[in-house]
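[agent] plan:
  1. take the single chain provided in the ticket
  2. run structure prediction with default settings
  3. attach C-alpha cells to the ticket
  4. add a short note for the reviewer (M.T.)
[agent] executing step 1
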Amino acid sequence: MLPELILREEQEENYTLLAGLGFASVLFAFAVSGFLFPSQADLLVVIFAAIPLVYPLVSFFFDDEKSYAPHTPEALNYFSLFFGQVLAFLILGYFRPEFFAVQSQAAGISGNAVDPGFFLGLLLNNMTVFVSIAFVSFITGSAGAFILSWNASVLGVFLASLLLRLPRNVSAYLLGDGKTAPPLAYVPHATFEMSGFILAGISGTLMSAAFYRKHFDKKHWKDFGKLFVAGVLLILIGAFLEAT
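[agent] step 2 finished; step 3 output follows
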C-alpha cells in the first residue's frame, strides 16, 4: 500500500503528504524490525524503510526521464521523503537511542566526530558518498532509496543525540549550552550535503533510465551532467561550511 500511495502523491506533487509517508515508512520499518529481528533492528529498519520508496521513486523518475530540465519535481519528491524519514529517525533516536548503535557509530556520536578543520577529509568523505549514491542508482535504478534511508537514519539519530545531551528546555535546543551545539547549527551544511546526495540519486536514476531506453543523444546527457555538477557544487559548499 505504501508504494502506491507514495507514487500517487508524487504524481500529484503533494510534498507535505509525501513527507508524512516517508515518516510512516520509518515507523512501520521500526515496528517490524524491532518485533521480528530486535538484535539487528538498527540495520534492518533502514532496509525496511527503503523498500516502499524504491518502486514509486523509480517509476516517477523513469516517466520523467523523457523530459528535460528542470527536474524540480524529482528533487522535491526525493527531499520530501527524506525529510519525513529524518524526522521519524530523530524521534525514534530520541526515545529509543539504544536501538541505533550502528547509526550512532557512523555519526561519530561515541566521541569520534569529524574535526571541522579537516576540509579535504570532509570533502573526500562526502564525495565518496555522493559518487556511491550516483553509481548505485545508475546500476540498480533504485533512485538510491536505500542510501537515502541510511543517510536519513544517521542524520536523524545524530540530531537526536544532540538533543539528549542538551538541557531539556527550548533555549538550549535553539542555542546550545556552551558545550554541545544545538541541532540548528548543523542545518546549513547538512542542507547542502543532503541536497547534493539527492541530486546524486536523481542523476544516477535518470542516467539508468536513459541507458535502458538507449537515449544517448547529447541533449539528454548534457542535462544529466548539469545535475551531477550541481550536486558536486552542493557537496563542496557543504564541506566548506562544515569545516569553517
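[agent] step 4 note for reviewer: Confidence is low (pLDDT under 50) at residues 110-114.
[agent] ticket updated
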